[in-house]
Input
Amino acid sequence: MRPNGRDDGRTPRARLLTQSEARDAGAENARPETDLVFDFEGLHRPDLCDLALILTARLQAPAEERVWVRALPYATWNLLQDLGVAHLFHVYPGVEEEMD
Output
């Protein structure tokens, strides 16, 4: 671990799902050709950069496009709710129970 508390860059980061991954996951109401899906699976705790990324994506995306979050940790989802920005994101199908 580096002195600033960060590791050497091998920590899993949020990632975008590909079109085929979104279809395979059963997101019938997602439009993977235009919607963004951020996958937080395997990420222990998103940091400020991850949150800035999804907020920037939402603010830069056209209004008709949706930004989805998948496997976002419960505490992070609560933080988004506390900040009043959770309504900007859609919960990816099949993981609603993880964030309630």
Residues 48-60 form the longest helix (13 residues).
